[in-house]
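User: Hello, can you help with two protein structures?

Assistant: Certainly.
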Amino acid sequence: MARRNERYLSDFDGNAVRERDPRRVERLERGIEKRREEIRRREALEHRAQQSRVRRLENSKGLGPVAFVMLLCCAAVMFYLWAGYIKLNDENRNLVKETARVNAQVDQLKDVNDIAVNEINSSVDLKNVYRTAVSEMGMVFATGNQIISYEDNEAAYVRQYKDIPKTAKNNILDDIVGFFNK
């Protein structure tokens, strides 16, 4: 508080103004110059910021023709993929429906087939077939020497691509027939 009063006291002497102190005038002028310099700096910064904002605004005004064409191409590709997806989804749905329909049809045909097999099996008298085969046809069970064995390495089933070779053991009947055929 004393300093503030000193300032006033130093500028005034009663009701008359004293002559100014040159050091004080220099200090005041330097302070004013510093404030002006800071204002200029702030104005320069604000001017640069304003120019930067204007540049950004000019750069972001809209799409250029190349970017617009690229955007249209991307949109066309996305539409094509979307349409393909919808088509595949519809085909899948139709195939599921068709599969269900065919499975129902197969189940129905299996039922009809099972009924037919049961009717056939119940209509056949196996004792009558055996009696007819033995008495009228003269069929008999094969004897051990009439059975030709064939060994295969595969366990599943045999495909015959050529004649089955005779076994090493020939029975007597084959030797006699072979002797007279020569």
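That covers the first. Now for the second protein you mentioned:
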Amino acid sequence: MSVEQKKDSPEQAEFRAYCQDWLSQHQQEPPPVRLPQSAIEIMHTEQMDYLRNWQREAYDAGLIGCDYPVAEGGGGRTDCQIVANQEMQRAGKPFLPNILGLGMAAPTIHFHGKPALKEQLLPRLFSCEDIWCQGFSEPGAGSDLANVQTFAERKGDRWVINGHKVWTSLAHFADWMILLLRTDKSSKYDGLSYFVVPIKSELGKSVEVRPLIKITGETGFNEVFFDNLEVSEDYLLDELGKGWQVAQTTLLHERSAGPLVTPSSGGATSNQQTNVGNAYALMDLARQSPRHGATAADDPVIRDKIMEMIIRQEGSRQGARRARVAGLCDHPMRIPLQSKLVMSEIRQDCSALAMEIEGAASSLYLGDAHAPVGGEWPLSYMNSYGVTIAAGTNEIQRNILGERVLGLAKSK
């Protein structure tokens, strides 16, 4: 019996048994194309269709939206989503593609949307009928998010939106966007409002999506331009001028610190065979990497570095468990807020060590028949820099921890 099972409530124990039974019986067809390493790298329709079908099946089985009210398309359970997440990961299932919808849009709509809007949007979000993206960052508003300049002007009972968003993951597939914008230019914070807006139906008319090609050759990021996009006032979340407060709900859940734990990923990696990104996979990589007539696994320095990575990874995983036990944290936000910071750097250091283990072979990339593990580790290393930037740069995250958790003076 796992540690998690020992601490399960009766409802969680019953639900865990159900999840294990369903997952053991549910076998998927192999993907028709190579899957990316995470949802934000999905490029092709074939990739999205395969993953979208998986999320729909998981939702139909009750493994998605478990803790949301039934009226909103959820399961009406209590603290059961984390159980489904754990069991999907143990079963090695693919990640869920609607990562931004599940992790950010859904909790924000739940806490700030009108009942009719929740009933309209959330079931289709959970089932992956609608893909969501996040419209926060702009060319002049990244770390200083409150500086966004995308503007909405009232026109009767509608709003006309003009502006430019950047680093918008999945916008090339998205049906809807959560959008932080300005409705009053005279106040930096109180002039912000928060909308949900349809974008796919407006492509080529009022919305333009331009892909941004990364160093990896992938195009998961995009720029989005709004040219007189008209939306109903029904799509305003909370009150006018409350955008900054609503955005805090989004950011808390983006950093896994919010009260609604939603799944961003079923398995740790899309490639169940290679398990790239996991420190334990470095052991197999070292055994398969030639080094001076032996293997990298025979090098005591490499062995020490691998064990250090495993210890860091396990330490972070066990630390995250503490966050779910009342009284074990000196500050309720410390562990949730530090998780993104720590795990993103572990992934980056893990991938860097994989490059060291592969040696000269680390210069071989996807598609090269001689590339170790199909060239997935060099891809993971390059993608890891996006992870340390996303959801707020790690430098900003350290400021948040220092100021809000440790009570240090605000940095200049």
